[in-house]
Every structure is written in structure tokens, then in C-alpha cells.
Amino acid sequence: MGIVINQSIKNTIITYFGFGIGAINALFLYTIFLGKMHYGIVAFVLSAANIVMPLMAFGVQNTLIRFYSKYNSVEEREKFLSFMLFIPIVIILPTAAILYFFYPQITFFILNENPNVAPFLWLIPIVGIFMGYFEIFYAWVKVHFQSVFGNFLSDVGTRVIVLFLLFSVSQNWIQKDTFVYLLSAVYGFQCLAMMVYAIHVKMPVFKFQLPNNTKEIFSYSIFIIASGTVTVMLIDFDKVIIPAYQNISSNAFYSVAVFIAMVIAVPSRAMMQIIYPVTAQLLNENKLEELDALYKKSAINLQVFGGLIMLGIFLNCKELYQLIPQEYSGGIAVVFLIGLSKFYDMIIGNNAAIILNTKYYRWFLFFGFLLVALMIGLYMILIPIYGIVGAALATLIAVIIYNSIKVFFVFWKMNLFPFSIKTVYSFGIITLVFFMFYFWDFDFHPILNIVLKSILITSIYGLLNYKLNISIEMSEIFDKFITKVKF
Questions:
Q1: 388: number of Cβ within 10 Å
Q2: Is residue 58 within 8 Å of 87, Cβ to Cβ?
Q3: pLDDT tens profile 159-178
């Protein structure tokens, strides 16, 4: 776990710094300067682009990680990389043609309810291509165990540029419509920068020959397209389907709440950047005992970190909403529902990476299709009744079912299980701290209230976890910190 912990800590610091900038953007600058209509449009375009991204990338970002460590010679790896860089074009060109000729039919349902989205719909596949190739180049550096720069680029670099663009809107240097177009260009810059860094890490030598296992690669890539789309739909489809039932402005209220809840998932995002290739390598080398240890450690470490962040969000949510425009305050219930779904995503550790890197990977797609069907059905039932709260509730139900199936499947097929008695202790600590502070508020300014409660929550939560030694890795880090402070 050495390289995992090392890079995970760096990624966590970077990601939280990026989330800090993102919080300024999402909670204040977007809501004040951009307005709810254009904020809703931005949320719709980026979510839709994220859904088509696996298709535009042809699943290469996962395929590259899956097969790279299997090649023993430099020549085989160079042929494989060349193949990976050019294969997405096979899907991009026909997709572009389909979108061009069937544009009115594809956009009918969205434009019927929100015609003001029309000028921006063509940006969705373009941004999807930028996102796809960014992930491909990011995967190239991940297989060389270099995940920090890509994390910095996506979580910090782009958000700084967006902050500047939002400031430009506030100064009337650019119009709101122009902002949406420039935001799309930011993803093009992100893709270009990642490509340059990938070349710096390992200069590719192009060999236009098919790898020996081309059929296997194609099969796996097609699977990743489908499963990746399923996974992304579980994350972003709510922001795409809401405008089909409600005004696009509802997406702005929903997006604010989702952004707040997404902070809970930061430790998982950071750790998985490096755990995924390590998982693939352990499976390729058939080191199941080490994999089982990694599975359990990743689950409990994420539960400890994620539990703290979740408590910080839930117990300060009311104060946080006092800092943003009043019209957005209806999203508190969404924060709790989406937050719980993100927490459950975290506590199953590297479950998805295990399934995707074994012979059982096709089951991942089967589970995903069942869940997407369930999710769409729940959206159609709950959104018309409960609005954005219904969308969040549908997401939570879908995630609980989806993740539970994956956990029991891995246990059934490989006898690997992420939970232990420490999982129960951790839940006990989270529950105790939640009820200690949920009904307790200081009569101060919301920011001071948040700071004071966060200090108390962190101190009590951290002490209880340390005394019970819930996470060995976290306790060791704390001991090293104390040692350094003493000197």
C-alpha cells in the first residue's frame, strides 16, 4: 500500500484544493454571476458530454490499464499504445454522422421543454471527445504509476480557468452565452495539456501493426463502452433527464446540492487513481492474497475518510446554504440523499476495479443494464412527483442495489469481501458523532459556526478512530505526524 498511500495523499490534497476552487465557482460565482438558467445549461451540457464520453473514447482508458501490464516486450507495448490512440476514431466519425443527420429527432424531448438549450447542444459530442482523449492520455500515465499531474489538471487547473471566466462574466468582459462556449474550449485545453504530459512521461513510438490479441482488446473495449456509459449514467443521467420534466433552472438547484455532496467522494477519487492499475497488476500476477488485503484496506480507509467528510457536510449543511442565494435552499434533502449514495460508493473499496480486471467483467455490464433500467423507471416515477428530491432518491435507491449486487458477486465468485468487524465499529462512530452534533448549532455567523463545529467533529471523530485503530494506515500516518511535531 506504500505507493497507494503516497500518491493517494497527494491526490487527496490536490483534489480538495480543487474542490475548494470548485466550491467558490459552483456555490457562489455560478449562482450569483451566471444565473440559474445558464447554470442549468452548463450542468446539462457537461453531464451529457460525460455520458457520451465512454463511447467517444471507445473504452480505451480502461482497456489500456487492463492489458498494458500483460505485454512483456517494449515492441508489443508500443504496438498496443499506437492501437489505443487511434481506435477511438473508428467510433467518433460514424457517431458524428449520425448526430448530424438525426439531430432534430435526438433533441426533440429536451428542446420541447427547454428551447433555449438549442444553441449549445452541438457542444455535447465535442466536449465528450475532449473528455475521452483526456482519459486516454491520463490512463497512459497511470500505467506508469504517475497519477498526480492528471489529477491536478482536472481538479485544479480547469477550475482556475473557469473561475477566471466567471469573473469575466461578472465584469461584462464576456456574455453568458460566450461563457458556455469558452467552457467547452477549456476541456480542449485540458486534453492537450494531458497529451503533452503523457508524451513527457513516456514518448510513444508509433507502430502501425495490430497487437496479437486484437480481438480480445476489441471485445473488452466494446464492453467498457457499455459498462462505462452505465456507470456514468448512474452519476450524471439525473442532470440530463431533469430538463425533460422541469425547467432547465431546476438543474442549477440540483447541481449546487450535488456539488456539495460530491465532496464526500473526493478520497475515493484520489485513491482510485492509483489503486486501479495496482489492482489490475495483482490480478494479472494472480496475487489474490495481496488483492484481498488491498480490497479490505481500501474499503476501511475510504470509510474512515469518507465518514469524516460526510459528517462535515451533513452537520454543516444548513449553515452552508445560508451563504448562497436563498432560492437554492431547497436542495438540502438532495445533499443528504446524494451524499449517502456517494458514501456507499466509497465503502466498497476497489470492487469495480476487481470485477473489470477479471474474466467476470461481462457481468459488470449485465448488472449495469439492470440498474439503468431501474434508475430510468424511478426517475420517470419520482421526478414528476418530488422534483429534484425525487431524482436524488431514485439515484440513492439505484446505487444501493447496484453496489450491493457487485459486493456479493465478488464474494460469490472470488471469496473476497471488503467488510470486517471494523466496518461495524466505523459505522458506530459515524452514527454517534452525527447525533452528537446534528441538533447543536452555535449562534454565530455561518462561517464561524462551520469552522467551530468542524474542529470539534474532526477532533472527536479522529480520536475515536485512532483509539480503536480502525484504519492501520491512518493511525500510522497520525503517529508519524505526532513524532515530527514533537521534534
A1: 25
A2: yes
A3: 999 999 999 999 999 999 99
Q: How many CB atoms lie within 10 A of CB 316?
A: 20
Rounded-to-integer distance, Cα 423 and Cα 465, Å: 11
What angle do helix axes 74-86 and 123-142 make, rounded to 10 degrees?
A: 170
Query: Band of the pLDDT at 481, cuts 50, 70, 90?
Result: low
CA pair distance 193, 269, nearest whole angstrom:
20
Find the Cα–Cα–Cα–Cα dihedral 312, 313, 314, 320, rounded to 10°: 110
Any idea what DSSP says for residue 285?
T
CB 136 within 8 A of CB 57: yes
Q: What is the DSSP secondary structure assignment for residue 381, as one 8-state letter?
A: H
Which residues have CB under 8 Å from 335's CB, separation 6+?
Answer: 257, 260, 261, 313, 314, 317
Query: What is the C-alpha to C-alpha distance for residues 403 and 405, in angstroms, rounded to an integer?
Result: 5
Burial of 436 (0-12, 13-18, 19+ CB in 10 A): middle
Locate 356 and state its grid cell: 473489470
Q: Cβ(303)–Cβ(346) under 8 Å?
A: yes
**Residue 369: pLDDT band with limits 50, 70, 90:** confident
Nearest CA to 167 out of 75, 369, 43, 32 is that of 32
Within 10 A of 280 (CB to CB), how many other CB atoms are there? 24
Number of C-alpha atoms within 13 angstroms, CB side, residue 375? Answer: 28
Q: Which of 451, 455, 368 is nearest to 405 (CA)?
A: 368
Using alpha carbons, select from 182, 166, 113 the residue that is nearest to residue 384.
Answer: 113
Q: How far is CA 181 from CA 23, 123, 130, in A?
A: 21, 8, 14
Q: Express each pLDDT in 280-335 by its tens digit.
A: 788 878 888 888 888 888 888 889 988 999 999 999 988 888 888 777 777 889 99
Is the pLDDT score of 1 beyond 50? no
Asked if 174 contacts 180 with a C-beta cutoff of 8 angstroms, the reply is no
Q: Alpha-carbon distance 430 to 460, whole Å?
A: 10
DSSP state of 117: G
Which are the contacts of 108, defined by CB distance < 8 A and separation ≥ 6? Answer: none
Cut 0.85: pTM above it: no
C-beta of residue 89 within 8 angstroms of C-beta of residue 221: no
